[in-house]
Every structure is written in structure tokens, then in C-alpha cells.
Protein: DNA 3'-5' helicase
Organism: Anaerocolumna cellulosilytica
Amino acid sequence: MEELLIELKNTYGKEAEFRDGQQEAIQGVLDGKRLLVVQKTGWGKSLVYFLATKVLRKRGKGITLIISPLLALMNNQIESANKLGLNVETINSENAEDWDSITEQLSKGNIDALIISPERLSNPEFKKLLMDRLAAQISLFVVDEAHCISDWGHDFRPDYRRIVDIINRLPSNIPVLATTATANDRVVNDIKKQLGDKLLISRGSLMRESLSLQVIELHSKEARMAWILQNINKIPGTGIIYCLTVNDCKLLNKWLNENGISSESYFAGLDAEKKNEVVNSFMNNSIKVLVATVAFGMGFDKPDIGFVIHFQRPGNIVAYYQQIGRAGRGIDKAYAILLCGGEDDDINNYFIDSAFPTEELMETIVNTVMQHPGIRITQLEKYINMKPSKIKSCVKYLLVNGDIYVEDKQYYKTTRIWKPDLEKSREITNIRKKELLEIEEFSKQVNCYMEYIANILDDTDAKACGSCENCVGHPLIKVEVPEILVLKAQQFIREDFNIIEARKQWPSGERIDGGNRISAELICETGRVLSNYGDAGWGKLVSAGKYKDNFFDDKLVEASGLLLENFIRDNNIKWVTSVPSIRRPELVKSFAERLASRLGLKYYDAIEKVNNNRCQKELNTSYLQYENAYNSFEVSHVYDENVLLVDDMVDSRWTFTVCGYKLRKNGSGRVFPFALANSAGRNGDE
């Protein structure tokens, strides 16, 4: 073991010492063992496999193959490896132009470690490269974030199942190292079951001494916004605020910036260039706070994060522990503040219902593939009323499980007999519900918060932390929020509005007027939305008007009039029409007529609902929403001047797209959509 200590000190200085368990884990790998390391974030799991790699390479051994789930994590790992003088490369979706040169360097033995995502293993060309050319060169196989292997885990990824097949085909003398910071006994046992009984377990304490935890119940969104504004600059350092939805991410980021606090938002929909710009600002301490969904997670190793605030309660303790673990890695004290709100459970229950593919949904896909051999994944959306993300998740699971196969992007049923495991599907859902109850219970704790977390994670070293609000006996940060700040936040929400971006093409494979793209002169203009559905201010009034009163309050007419006055003038809009409804014929029409009067414009019924089809909110794929809208509306007589097209809700934008297209086709001027509320992105998204 002296060899390992020398390597450590040569790299990190004479004062460097191994943390508890690191040296033993490295030695286990060098002895050819299969090992699962469960250690808290910041413990140094990557040091184990990179130092082992350095020793193995010095002994003339082959490469280390590392399976890592995120590109950001790969980049961070490469930086860590460079400190040890290792030449590490990655093959991923964003560097296809480098694949040939990397493959050549691999064949020459010039690369010490190769990092790939589990999704690479589904690529037939890469799988052939791996099994034909790399298998004989592998001297260490590493699975990072190994909890993703287990479908009992909070972050199950079907592609991780492919790893198990490859590991089982490796020579028995090749060491395997699996690492995670978030695995309870159930997940550990499942990983052991899949990787073999010879798997050794190395577990350390999950207690985070540098973290001070506090829980604050603030039911309304505006109260939480006010609390953050009042306290954010009192907390030292930079930090992260986690939101469950993209809408809240955008709203909170805008609120902070408009009140003089430097902030950026991060979520899955950002383009790669903007993501890099935001991450660099955060890593360089150019901003005070990053407002993010769970899309900002693994792979961002910033040791001086001073706080993590949750705008809503996460869905389980494991996710919460993982997220707060980003703070306080290299500093003595950091804060983890959980703000609990009224919408938390609704969002988290949506997550539970939509996360793991149910057996019923997978059976629907299996039957559809059997009925339509060679079907493409975009075509499945025409036949199955399921969100595209869920279709892809089900397809991936079925591929990994061997129930279907793909050739040239076309899907076929295998000869394997489909046997749905309904019991397991129900059991996983029940576990998720139980986990939600656990974090609800956490927020009501009167004893140590960290000890509660450690017990849930089956940490045998669980003990009172001595630094959370329950241990010290008083709030770490003041809970009370001045009413004037709450009113300011409420007014901000009321004055905030969203843009309706125009759709510019029909669904994939659909051709109208000879093409898939909508002709430029038939596309809707950029529109406006008064509120986010259900939010404080106008959003709640819209909800009450639609589902309780069957009438939209005159306050909404006045608020919409104020929002649209300049918009109407600037775009020379001369008349108003509305999207009709058979179920509630007067609801939107009455509002649109009053709005037209408020704006001094004429109102005209130009659109007719010809089919009493399903509500758009009941349909989950873009194609079905488009088809439903296209077959529902017809346009007859119109004015040739610019028009404001009014509806109560906007989500998929297909109703506006279709009605706007048909208005323009029939000779109207430019069409400007307006909706009272945006209902898109209000459930759990990234």
C-alpha cells in the first residue's frame, strides 16, 4: 500500500492523506476484486479509479473503461485525471468528429482511460468496437453512479442494464468498480444481485458535517419568493436554488435579477452554448445564485458552494440528499434550506405517475410494434396516447429487456414472449409513494434532520449532526417575511407574462400544402399569455373562472387590457375572435367580447367548432394534439385586418397554430394569439 501513498503525495503534495476507505478500495481493485463503493459526495470516488488506473498502467496493463451518465460529469472526471498525469478521452454524442482519432489512439495503447455514457452501449457500431477491439485491452471496468443500475433506485436508467450484460461477459480476473453516493440497502442488494455474489461492499458514513439544515413551511409561492429575496444576500457565498418546474425556474430567476441579485437559470431546454455560459458564470462565482431544475446535477464539482435552497420539496430523501450534497464540499459551513409549498405534492405525484414505465404502457407499445412491424418511434406517437418522453423510456426499457429490437431506426418484436410483470410495476410505484411520505415526514422532524436522512439511507453511523435548526434549538435563518415583500412578489407574478412562440411546421411526417413546414404567411405571430395557470395573482383567478364559476372575472379583462394595449397598437390589430367550445360555449366567448370592448375593437365569431373532440389536455403526443385540433375547427368569413385570437389556456400551441393557419387561409390579416394562462410545464419537468 506504500506505493499508493507515494502516488497520492506526488500528485497532491506531501501533506495529502487518503480518506477513510480510499486506500482499501484502490487495493481491492488492484487485487482484481469486484467492488461497490457507497460513499458521500466529495469523498473522492473518482480518485479510487484514477489512482488505480495509474498504478495498473505503470504495471503495463490495459485501459480503464468508465461508464458515466452525464457529459458534464465526464468533463469533470477528465480534469481530475489530468492532475494524475493520465491521458483520458471520452466518446460521446458531441464529439463524433474525434471518434476515429480516439479509436486509433486506443489501438496504439496511448489512452489510459476511456469514458462513455451507458447510452453508447446501445449503439451497434460502438458495441462491435467494444467487444471486438476493446474487450481484450480492458484492465479495469468502472460504473459511476451505479444506483442507476437498480430499478428500485431513484434514478433508474434502462441503459445501465446493458452494463450488466457486458460485465458478465468480462474475464473473471478483470476488476470491476461500481460507485455511488446514494444507495440504501434495497438498492445495494439489487446491484449485488445483478453484478454477482462476489461483489464486495465498501460503505462509509453519509453524514455531512459541513451542512446546516433548516426547513421552512411557506405555503404560497409569493411568500417563498419574498423569503429568498430577503435572505439570499445574508447567506455567504454562491449557491443553488432548485425548482421542480421550468416555469418556476424562469419566474424566480427573473424575480431575483429584477431585484438586483445576480442570477442565472438552468434547465434541460437550454441550448448547449447557453448551458456552458451559465455553468461558467456559476463556477467562476460571477453570479450569486443558480436557479435550476434537477437537470443541473451530477458532474459539477464546485467545492465552495455556500448554500442549496429548495423552492419546493423534492420527491424523495435520496434526491434531496444528493442535491444538498453539492454544498459545503470544500468549506467548513454551508446551508441547506428546504422551503415547503402548497404545490409540492401535486408536482411530485405527477413525477411518480410519469417516471417509471408501467407494464400496461409497455404492453401497449409491444402490441403496436407487433401490429406495425418496422414502425419508427415518431410513428408510435400517432397510435399511442402517451407523452413522447414516456414512449422513449418504454421503448428503451423493452430494447434492453430483449422484447423488441431495432434495425435502421425501425422497431420489431423479438421472438421472446412478452410477460408483463404487473406486480413489480405496482411495487415500484408503492415504493415511490412511500418515499414521498418519508420526505414529508422529514419536513416535520423535531429531532436531527441529518440523522433522519442517514437512517433512511441505512447508514449505520447515523447520529445527531449538532448543527441543524433542530439540534441548535432555533432557526438558522429568520423565517418571518414582511407582508410588504409578499405583496411585492404577488404583484410581480401578476405583471409577469409569457410569450407564445409560433409553431413553424406540422408534426413529423405530416404534409399539408405539399410540405411539412407551414408557409411563412400562414404562421401565427408571436403572442402573449397573461399568467401561469394556478399561480398567485391571475393564475388562480383563471383556474376559479374555468372550473368553479364558469365565468372569467372582469379583473382578468382589465388585467389583459392593460397587458395588451400597447401590443394592439404596435401591431395594428383591428378585431378580436375566440376559440369556440361546445362544452362551455360562453366561457371564452364572453371574455373575448368584453376584452374587445375594453380595447375598443370589434368582436366577430370567425371560427366554428365542428367536432366535439377530446380535450387537448387529455392527449399526450404532439401528433394527436395536432390531429384533434385540425379536425375540430373550421373558418368561414373573416376580416382582412390583423386579429387577436383569444383562448383561455395554451399548452401544446396546436389549437392556436391550426386556427391561425385556417384564419390566414381564409383571408384574415396577421393572427396574434392571446391566452389567459399557460398550462405547459407546470408539472414536474426539467
